[in-house]
Amino acid sequence: MKYIKKLTKAREASSFLFLVVLFAIVGCININFLAPSSIAACFNDSVVFTLLAVGMAFAIFIGEIDVSVGANLGFTASVVGSLLRDGHNWVFCFAVGILIGAVIGLINGWGVAVLNIPSLIFTLGTNGVLRGLIYVYTDGAWVENLPASFTAFASKPLIGDLTVFYTVALAAVIVIHILLTRTKRGKYFIAVGDNVNGAILVGIPTMWTKIGAYVLCGIFAAIASILYASRIGFITAIAGNGYEMKAIAACVIGGISLSGGLGSVIGASIGAVIMSSVSRILVFMGFSSDYDNTITGVMLITIVVLDALMQRHAAERIRRERLRARASGTAGASTEGGEQA
Amino acid sequence: MNKIKKTFLNWEMFLLGILILEFVVFGAKNAKFLMPRVLLASVNDFIAICFIALFVTFVMITGGIDIQAASIVGFTSIIIGVGWQDGGMNIWTAAILAIIVSAVCGALSGFFIAYCGVQAMVVTLGGSFLYAGFALLVSNLSATEAYQGISGFPDDFKVISKFKLFDVIPSQLLAFAVLVVIAYILLHKTKYGRSIFLVGINQEAAEYSGINTRLVILSTYVLSAVSAALAGIMLTSYLGTAKSDLGANLTLNIITAVVLGGTLSTGGKGSVIGTALASLVIGILRFGLPLCFKVNTQYLDIPVGVLLLVVVIGRAIVSRPETAVFFKKLQKET
């Protein structure tokens, strides 16, 4: 257990290190990038991805995936945006949005946890349906003229240049991290992703944990959609297109293993900052932002391949150690036997 | 075992039934739908789905998934365009170059999946970013603005999509038929096909029985990438323009066609005929709904998504032990 804990710590640390090194390199090439306002902008711009990635992290923790968050974001943003435009009470609008997100999450959770349908396929289906529903709801028109007081919120600074949104999101991430690592129920997610059968044996309600993860994922996408509406100020019919892929990429870059049971929400939020900074970094380094997708793809593949090779290497080493211990005497073998688990 | 075989056969019959039902319903609603000219011209709109789904079936039988094929379509298209217009290549050389490049793309992803043991989902996700990005970069090499697309291809290139056998059957359909035959023989009649199934059922058992499982897995990604390249060539020829974002939103349709065709996403089961029928079902649906029911084309993701959900939910419910018990009880009572 201690070993695993150490490894997770190292995973976040390495992605944080990656972020620092990345910023430092860009800073060497163009010193303007390191201005406080520019660094703050990197963090502020990542707020939507941070929330999406944290939600996605729950789905990935349990060893599943949710590719419907992009459409979820687009649909919820359209509904909340149009309600706000029509002058409804803010609290009511937000509540509706979060409810929609939760219901979408519940449907996904039902399909994956109760019906045991492969999550990629099921959420791909809900993604298609939601994408279409956006057109049905908005008739393909943009949702515009959101109240100025609502959109002004996006640029309100709280600490230094960091906006209210990012500061609150960051605080929320830290609280969630503590809940996930320090409470019994919080640890259910990782436990289910690490070993489902083991989790069943120790009495964890795996089905409800999975459904819970999807509902949380949906709720985070809904919150992200409200911030998206506030930041962008208008919602097109293709809002959030491809965001699901970026959220997954953010999680992977943040050191969350897609086989489940490994990683942390802190890692996901660091990954989101890296992901959303790519296009900004390209501009500062004098490249066209057309390289955005290419860099993201290279980064994603490099990280997962390195991760897989390292994991294989570690597994091989443990196996070799065990064999050596067994060869050198039975006493060693009996103590090393515990490593197998 | 016999029963499974029976339901499997029935599934393809069921798809055929749906296809016929679609013809009847759409035909009854709007007679224009059944005019051979209109109907056969419609294949242009969904032929890419048919091409790619056939070979993504191979990938999914091995237990993998391929979500990068859609981005390879655009990549091939732009390679042809830039190679021909700005590289001064013969159009056919450019097309062959595009096929080779796509095969390399597929092999690269397949290598990471098979030899490094990374999940197919993540690698092809990365691949979809990467190849879409490459496509954009290649389009920047061109003198033409990216959003305009490259056009003005020679007539003998356009002919591959305009050709009609006996003046009725379009070349796309002929090419599809040829691909179905090739895929069918490859998957169901050769040793290679059997090894694909075995890898999907149990990779370790396949490895121990002397199959080079990694190479088999890699090869399926190459095949699906090449089929995406063929789809890209066909679309470029038909539209007459090469664009880097061609086929960008095909993923949902491709996966739906494969799953609807009876392929298990966990691997080990699937058929070429099923996929072929399913992709036609989806294609006709996408063509018929706007024509006969005035459904806005932007809404078409809904029926496709619903179709996917209904199939997977239905299959999940049928395969639950409770359902089997329920049916057995029902049988006993009657």
Q: Mean of the pLDDT scores of chain A?
A: 84
CATH fold name of chain B, please? ABC transporter involved in vitamin B12 uptake, BtuC
Strand order of the largest sheet of chain A: 1-2
Number of strands of chain B: 4
Task: Give an account of the 3D structure.
The complex is a heterodimer of chains A (341) and B (334). Chain A has 341 residues and is mainly α. Chain A folds into two domains: 286 residues, ABC transporter involved in vitamin B12 uptake, BtuC (Orthogonal Bundle); 49 residues. Helix content of chain A is 76%, strand content 1%. Chain A is built from 15 helices and two strands. Chain A has a two-stranded antiparallel sheet with strand order 1-2. The radius of gyration of chain A is 21 Å and the shape is globular. The termini of chain A are close together. Chain B has 334 residues and is mainly α. Chain B has a single domain, classed as Orthogonal Bundle (ABC transporter involved in vitamin B12 uptake, BtuC). Helices cover 75% and strands 2% of the residues of chain B. Chain B is built from 15 helices and four strands. Chain B has a two-stranded antiparallel ribbon. The longest helix of chain B has 28 residues. Chain B starts with a helix and ends with a helix. The model of chain B has no long low-confidence stretch (mean pLDDT 81). Chains A and B meet through helix 6, helix 12 and helix 14 of A and helix 6, helix 12 and helix 14 of B.
